[in-house]
What does this fold into?
Amino acid sequence: MNKLSAELLKDMISWRHHIHQYPEIALDVHETAAFVASSLKSAGLEVHEGIGKTGVVGVLRMGENPERKAIALRADLDAIAIEEENDFEYRSCHANKMHACGHDGHTTMLLGAAHHLAKHGDFEGTVYFVFQPDEEYGTGAISMLKDGLFERFPAQEIYGMHNLPGLELGKIEMRTGGTMASETLFEIKVKGVGGHASSPHRINDPIIPASQIMSSIQAIVSRAVNPLEATVVSITEVLTDGARNVIPSNITIKGDSRTFSNENIAIVEKRMKEIVEGTCVAFGMDGEVSTVTEFPVSYNAEEQTEIAERAAKAVVGDKNVITGCIPKSFSEDFAFLAQEVPACYVFIGNGVEGNHGMMLHNPQYDFNDAALEIGASYWCSLVEISLG
It folds into this structure.
């Protein structure tokens, strides 16, 4: 393990508690970004601020030929809009804002790695420490990309990490290929002819075909998608312009689908359109489907996952590294970064007990300070393996 000093570990706990106590959300992470930039500067890094509004990039070059290879390490800065229920000393000071996803820990682990590598790094190349705003609402990665992230900081690889409650402290898991799901939002519109509920024979009721559509699209997963490839289609909203005694003219059905391959994204969209169009034609109505893929599948590249595996084993030992883990059904805007350069995203155990085992986004969740050294050491190990 890259041995972090006791002084640095003490500082990291203090940093984490400070960031937790003063959470900020979305792209408006000005104070958090300023704190990160100041810390990076104190470690002697070259620091760039205001990327994608509030993103920060620290640059560390080492060796005789630092241009030989460059990699990027990414952490997220933002909190989420919920009220914290914890009562410890460093609980959130901001109403309806809380670090309930552990981004305070992610930021601190990457800061700790930057400080350690600046003093003790043994590699030849360049490391870009990327601190990204607004992962939760999904605009941060795109904002930084639009602001020229990889043009200004031309990394050849990028790596990410997330804590995982329920995974034992001291364990790290990963997989090659689809790691976090895509998310595609869909909206189905069924257009009939509404009117008084007493005279259904004089109208064209869209409720009947809409009901059949909702039932039929559930068969997409069971009959059009390979049963070995996880896919979910969920209807989450049904809206009408009717009333208690009025059959509506229009029905809107909204929902999302999640999967782990671009092929299945296309299959779900194609079958959904066929079902809507065919059902509406059968009832003499118009129907349409619109889809927006909010997040693509997050892919771990084979070579970068092998590097991550070696780094993790160097830190926690072979038996504590889980390869080929089950892919996660949540989505992450790290996927946009992984579309640009080869990437690997891993999960670090946050523990199973108390606040540390609480589900992410729970108002009683807390990042596990005992994971800080593990995560920072993993980053340091990864840098020295990739750039060694």
Summary: DSSP finds twelve helices and 16 strands in the chain.
